[in-house]
Amino acid sequence: MNILEVHNLKKYFATQKAVDDISLQIPKGCIFGLLGPNGAGKTTLIRMITGIFYPDAGEIILKGKKFDPENDAKYIGYMPEERGLYKKMKIGEQALYLAQLKGLSRSDAMYKIKDWFRRFEMESWWNKKVEDLSKGMGQKLQFVITVLHEPDLIILDEPFSGLDPVNSNLIKDEIYRLAKNGATIIFSTHRMEQVEEICDKIVLVNKGKKILDGSVHSVKQDFKENLFGIQLEKVPDVINSSSFEAIKTNKQELIVKIKEGHNPNDVLGYFIKEGVNIVSFKEILPSMSDIFIRLVEGTPSARQFQEIDA
Amino acid sequence: MNKILLIIKREYLTRVRKRTFIIGTILFPVLYLLLIFGTGYIAGKNKQDLNVGIIDKSGYFTEQLVANANRGDTANNLTLIRISEEVFKTQYDSLGYNGYVVIPENADWKKGLDSLVLNTNKTYGIGATVPVENKLNKLWSEIKNDSLGIDAAKKEILSKSNINLKTSNAKNQDADAGAATVIGYVCGFLMYLILLLYGSQVMMGVTEEKTSRIAEVVVSSVKPFQLMLGKIIGIGMVALTQFLIWIACIFLIYNLGKFSDGGAMGNAVGMVQRVFTSVHIFVVVGCFIFYLLAGFFFYSSLYAAIGSAINEDMREAQSLSFPITMLIIFSIALMTPAISNPSSPIAVWSSIIPFSSPIVMMARVPFGVPNTVPWWQLGLSMALLIAGFIFTTWFAGRIYRIGILMYGKKPSWKEMIKWAFRKQ
Question: How many angstroms separate the CA atoms of A292 and A220, rounded?
Fold first, then answer.
């Protein structure tokens, strides 16, 4: 079952088609990566999903029903990229206030806040003000406030920026735990190594359009270039095979590209026939970072302004 | 709806709990009184008593007359100069005089002295020179009286012939124009200060939410319009609380005054009591609460729209809020003619048109409802102000919704109006 479906969503601003006909499905319990270069339209898309913006066209289906921002706010937790809290307000009161705005009762909110604060070792923060916190501490607090009301859909925009590895791991573990408990996480980031590590599914948007959609595994398969790394005891000086070509040679490792219509067995067969001892053999898949760069390369690094006739 | 209440509660409590609110509530009336009495005191202190020499070439002025005049009025001192004119003119400064007048040789009591020149080497304000003029006039009248042969008894009769004009409104015997003028000024200025101070509080609050990026977190839970409305109502309640505390203090003093008598305290209480009985205090307080809230909603929603449009730079706020602030200042400018003639067309219309009505109407109401301000005027003014604030709140809400999430360049008023009338 899909927790969120977006059909042909459009949002045009005066000088930009910020989101131009994007459709996507996010299954329940999935950790979903929303990728794209700066200004691709990710934030606008997220703002429509969170009910901050009205779409110009298209529809959003949340939990099988048409999204109603007024009443569905409690199902969504959103952590914007630019963190925001009242600087002068006490942390405990602030968490209580924001949780109540999401629709939690006061006692319920209080219980949950205490629980999270204990888990994140933030109990002593209750009467402190946000302006007393370091950037990383603020980040942690913002995360807690985002997930406090146990939303079904959690949207995190660059959740790890500014966090040290220890706190990064703390949050990462929480994300896994929440996903395991049935929450769906939309994860917007530029950090491709995190996407590979955490996400199940991804969508890549560029210039307001979706240009890639699939699981991390299938995307990698789609973009593989039939490259294999083969470690040999001794790399022969001359390699002459009709089934593959050598791309690069390190001391003992050879990177080969298998030609159309051939398979890895042909490579291994060749070296066995040649009498070269094989140490290891593995497929080289492109990293998400490579795929990202390949797809958005050639796009101007900043979006240009254009006139829109809407 | 529940969420708006939460927002109102937060806005209200965070402000009322602040030390600045408590200090402001106590200190404001004290400072206000200090300002009124202080300026009066300083003005009194600052008045310069001039020492003026009279060089009389006509021979009308005698030492006797000048001494009598000085005895009757000590605000300045006139001295008949007997030493050489040339010497005095060059040395009057060092002799301790501030200036001198020369009575020309051809002065004639029948024709009168049209103009004299007070020669000084500094510039003195009219506060100092007018008493000199008055005293010289009095002296000159004495000289005329003596020349006409009018004796003390006749003088007595002449001085008694002054008529003192008092006003009496046939429909409203209680009306006291003096008290109404004072209350009108106090109400108008208080309204002006509250609109300006709390309006800019709304603006700063909105800007703070925008720049600290909390707005984006909150509007994913509530509609932007709810956030704006919650803030405006919350701050409006703070203003109302402050006003009610002041009213409560006045009533407290009033009731305490019934049991005490005499002394400065008793005098002050007596004054307040006279004022209370001379104007319909409940009508005034009721109208004040209405115009405070309605006027506040009218202006503060516009301030909220500006707050949402600007970024961290406070100079942006000033340039964008200038037209709104001008409207408030213009209203206070209309107040003065409205008080001096509360039934004039300018007073009537400026108390009905929404932008100036909170201040001007509050200046008129103490003169009496329904005699000076007929019911239809009050009703029309209130209805128009309600319609006005519904419009400004709607208008501001549409700007706010876009502005609160818009970073970068400050928009112009033209662009903001475009936002307001754009489709969703």
Answer: 11
- The matching CATH number, chosen from 3.90.1570.10, 3.40.640.10, 3.30.9.10, 3.40.190.10, for B48-153 is 3.40.190.10
Residues in chain B predicted with pLDDT less than 70, given as ranges, are 1, 36, 40, 43-48, 161-162, 164-177, 254, 256-279, 408, 423-424
> Smallest CA–CA separation between A233 and chain B, in Å?
59
CA distance A124 to B75: 71
What H or E segment, with its residue span, contains residue B97? none
**Which structure tokens are listed for B360?**
């001007």
Across the interface, of A47, A54, A98, the residue whose CB is closest to B217 is A98
Domains contained in chain A, CATH given = 2-221 (3.40.50.300), 225-284 (3.30.70)
Q: Considering CB atoms only, which of B212, B222, B424 is closest to A86?
A: B212
Residue numbers in A near B217 (CB within 8 A)? 78-80, 84-85, 98, 145
SS3 assignment, position A209: strand
Q: Please name the residues between 289 and 328 in chain B that touch chain A, using a CB distance below 8 Å.
A: none
- For chain A, the farthest-separated pair of C-alpha atoms sits apart, in whole angstroms, at 76
Provide the whole-model pTM: 0.75
Domain ranges of chain B: 2-32+175-420, 48-153
| pLDDT value at A308 more than 90 | no
Interface confidence: ipTM more than 0.85: no
Residue among B3, B6, B214 minimizing CB distance to A84: B214
How far is B416 from chain A, CA to nearest CA, in Å? 13
Query: Per-residue b/e over A90-112, b at no fewer than 16 CB within 10 Å?
Result: bbbbbbbbbbbbbbbeeeebbeb
Q: Which residue of A has its CA nearest to B224?
A: A52
pLDDT tens for each residue of B19-36 = 888 888 888 778 877 776
